[in-house]
Every structure is written in C-alpha cells, then in structure tokens.
Specification:
With 100 residues, the protein is mostly beta strands. It is 11% helix and 31% strand. The mean pLDDT is 94.
C-alpha cells in the first residue's frame, strides 16, 4: 500500500523524555512522590529530539479527515515517516516551532 502525505500542520520540536526506573523495573519517585522523568540522551550526550506535528495521510481518507498527531523522527522505520522528517528539516512545510 502506498502512503502519501495529504497535509501537515503545526510542526514543533519535542525533547524525548522517559520515566526513570529502579533495578526492579518500578518507576522511581522523588521526595514528593512524583514520578521522576529524565531527558533521553543520544550516544554523544545530547537530548534526543523529534518533530511533533499533525498530519492527514492518504491511506486514512481524504482532506476532510481528522488531523492526527504524528511524531516524525530521523530513525522512522516507515518510508513515509522518514520522508516527512526529511521534508520538515528541509523547511518544505514551514518553520518548526521551538519547544514551549
């Protein structure tokens, strides 16, 4: 099946965060009882970032379909996801907003 992007809007950088787990696989808590969340780092120690956006895709309908949240990453396993990431980086869908 061929998957084609119909439209994309609201691209925004997002830093990937994960829960911190203890040796038993339980989410660690801080002294107030809140879950501890850490920024995911790459091999060089830099924060991992993705591009969050809203998309409409050909395999889900036409331009009247609902907008769906999509996380574009450079390591996407699907061709359409990787192509979208590359196009967003190249500025083909406008400016990528900073993380708020």
């Amino acid at each position: 099946m061929s998957i084609t992007l119909i439209a994309v809007r609201n691209p925004k950088w997002l830093t990937v965060k994960n829960f911190k787990y203890d040796a038993n696989g339980n989410i660690e808590k801080d002294e107030s009882g809140n879950d501890i969340v850490e920024t995911l780092l790459d091999e060089s120690g830099n924060p991992v970032k993705i591009i969050e956006c809203e998309c409409q895709w050909s395999h889900l309908g036409d331009s009247s379909q609902e907008w769906l949240s999509f996380a574009a990453t450079p390591s996407d396993k699907s061709a359409h996801g990787k192509a979208l990431y590359d196009d967003l980086i190249a500025g083909k869908h406008g400016t990528i907003a900073d993380e708020s």
